Amino acid sequence: MNENKTTEVAVILTDEKKSIIWVNDAFLTISGYSLFEVLGKKPGSILQGKNTSKETIELISKSLKKQLPVETQILNYRKSGEPYFCHLAIHPVFNDKKMLTNYIAFEIDESNKSIESEYSMLQIQKKYKASSLEPMDEVTLFRRLNTLIISKNLFLDPDLDIKLVAVGLKSNTKYLSQVVNNQFGNNFKHYINHFRVDKLKEVITDPQNKGANLFEMAQQCGFKNKSTFHKVFREFTGTTPKEFLLQNKN
Hints:
Mean pLDDT: 86
Number of domains: 2
Strand content: 15-25%
Number of strands: 5
Strand order of the largest sheet: 2-1-5-4-3
Order of helices and strands: EEHHHHEEEHHHHHHHH
Number of helices: 12
Shape: globular
CATH class of the largest domain: Alpha Beta
CATH architecture of the largest domain: 2-Layer Sandwich
Helix content: 40-55%
């Protein structure tokens, strides 16, 4: 075993209703999901499966209802369907008025854990908890940004720019740009194109649009330039729009 191998700790931050508002890179690596696939979801709905212990699920549920921390082992599932045992600890987070605001969970993939005795879960929580709560303001703004973009379908506007969105969020372009880069991992334009590509995948595979012009459908989804549309689609999907359509024919 590599003595220098470090234990990857997945960190999940939810709101008070247990919906995911942020995860760290280790979670994405361990689970196989992308950030946008998990935002707004309940952790259990995407990680638990048919062989996850009902008793463990009940233990977690009862503890969280009482707003108490819980630590246990659980069988989770990656996006691929592969099961894995993990060591899990969940803590409620309270504001200065002692009102519940969030839950923060720490997960270690037991199959990839390094030296068994290197860290206790308590040590790991101390190491990661403070740093994981530091980006709370960013996470909150990013959550508001996602809600605004999705609820109003702003990405369908080909002339959408960050200035307009910043005004809607009562923020400023510099800070909003920083938040998108930190939380999404790329710039604002790339972030918006993500929604356009996802929408376009729905549109071009809809049987009602059989035979429709691909670029006309792309324009309906917010793309303005034909060459940009093809380039962006390939960046996100690894294939051309025409190839994607052929691969997903009913």
